[in-house]
Design goal:
Keywords: Lyase, Magnesium, Metal-binding. By secondary structure, the chain is of the alpha/beta class. Helices cover about 35% and strands about 25% of the residues. The protein has 2 domains: about 150 residues, Enolase-like, N-terminal domain (Enolase-like, domain 1), CATH 3.30.390; about 220 residues, TIM Barrel, CATH 3.20.20.120. α1 crosses α3 and α9 runs parallel beside α11. The structure holds 2-succinylbenzoate (OSB) and magnesium ion.
């Protein structure tokens, strides 16, 4: 497609309740959205020489502050406006157009900034698929029309408060519960949840890199609670220590922050640093690379699941499509919109009986509702060719 303009929009959405992890508390979601506008010509436009106008949406999952990884929303916005979007325009000028499949190589001169790159690729892919009437799910290779829906539960002020919150999600029907842990909030709350809800609750924990190898005795105490996995216990750049830790635990180690690319995933598998991989498209630079990480894991017999980053309905719809690929054998953090937002910017993604439906419409299959989007927008700019 030929790209004529790109809108960069910042939205600020209140969360239904504070979300606390080992790296901080969030009360709202500040996110950068990308809208790509262009034209498709040739067969995709039904032979119309002039070309048909299309648009597509992308969501940048970088948080407001650089606490989960080094990216942050204002930095993503800057690198998009100043480097990434201009690279795309230059490619259109040089070759007459871009496809989602070549966005990654066009943006490759810029080092890092995978979440910003992933958002731009997602917008181009959405536009391209809307142009051809194909859904994200069928394009990516989905094999299911619903996906099991898990919920990520933040650190709570007390164990009693945690039991109430988990009880509410269990009652709603979530297929799996993930508890955020950190030193001082681990064995006691996990034991309390296991005792209250019983052996049948699918339960896992996420440390967001808050521990060190010196904590091996504490982490080994989690073995008795029959967890599905322990997510990212150690530093993001330490595969060797994760491999060492994995030999000392019965609970499978899963990596999130450490898996920044297909190469990182291949290294982690070869080093036995993890037995499970959390796939987040933004963290690896987009849905096309996410699919390649999935393919690699599937070929190596490593189960994967789809992580979340408090996405709006746009990213949530794309995640549901990704989670429908065959290697996603564990429930993901693909919860209903109402887990985080009273009002989503799209029609809400709904969890029903522990499942989320994979959208079937062209592209993402959802789009922002104009007045809701405007209500949450705090800044908009237009980048032109
Ligand atoms: O580590 O999975 C994580 C949210 C923000 C940053 C990192 C993580 C998370 C979550 C929330 O756990 C998952 C969700 O969006 O439901
Ligand atoms: Mg995580």
């Amino acid at each position: 497609m030929k790209i004529t303009g790109v809108e960069l929009r910042t939205v600020r959405m209140p969360l239904v309740s504070p979300f606390e992890t080992s790296f901080g508390v969030q009360r709202e979601r500040l996110a950068v959205l990308v809208r790509v506008v262009g034209t498709v010509s040739g067969a995709a436009a039904g032979g119309d020489r002039k070309g048909r106008e299309v648009q597509g949406w992308g969501e940048c999952v970088a948080m407001e502050a650089p606490l989960y990884n080094s990216e942050y929303a204002a930095g993503s916005l800057e690198v998009l406006r100043r480097y990434l979007v201009p690279l795309l325009f230059r490619e259109v000028e040089r070759t007459g157009g871009v496809t989602a499949e070549n966005v990654e190589s066009v943006l490759a001169p810029v080092v890092g900034h995978r979440m910003a790159k992933g958002a731009l690729e997602m917008a181009v892919l959405d536009a391209q698929l809307r142009g051809s009437g194909t859904s994200f799910a069928s394009y990516l290779g989905a094999v299911r029309d619903t996906v099991p829906s898990g919920v990520s539960v933040g650190i709570q002020p007390s164990v009693n408060a945690l039991l109430d919150v988990v009880g509410e999600y269990v009652t709603q029907g979530y297929a799996r519960v993930k508890l955020k842990i950190r030193p001082g909030w681990d064995v006691v709350p996990v034991e309390a949840v296991r005792n209250r809800f019983g052996d049948l609750l699918a339960l896992q924990v996420d440390a967001n890199a808050a521990y060190s190898l010196a904590d091996v005795r504490t982490l080994a105490r989690l073995d008795e609670f029959d967890l599905l996995l322990l997510e990212q216990p150690l530093a993001r750049d330490d595969l060797r220590q994760h491999a060492e830790l994995a030999t000392r635990l019965r609970t499978p180690v899963c990596l999130d922050e450490s898996i920044t690319s297909v190469r990182a995933a291949a290294d982690a598998i070869a080093l036995r640093a993890c037995r499970v991989v959390n796939i987040k498209a933004g963290r690896v630079g987009g849905y096309l690379t996410a699919r390649r990480v999935h393919d690699l894991c599937l070929a190596n017999g490593v189960p994967v699941w789809c992580g979340g980053m408090l996405e709006t309905g746009l990213g949530r719809a794309a995640n549901a499509a990704l989670a429908a690929l065959p290697g996603f054998t564990l429930p993901g953090d693909v919860s209903g919109s109402d887990r985080f937002y009273e009002r989503d910017i799209t029609e809400p993604i709904v969890m029903d009986d522990g499942q989320v439906a994979v959208p079937t419409g062209a592209g993402l299959g959802v789009e922002p509702i104009k007045d809701v989007l405007e209500r949450f927008t705090v800044a908009t700019e237009w980048v032109q060719a």
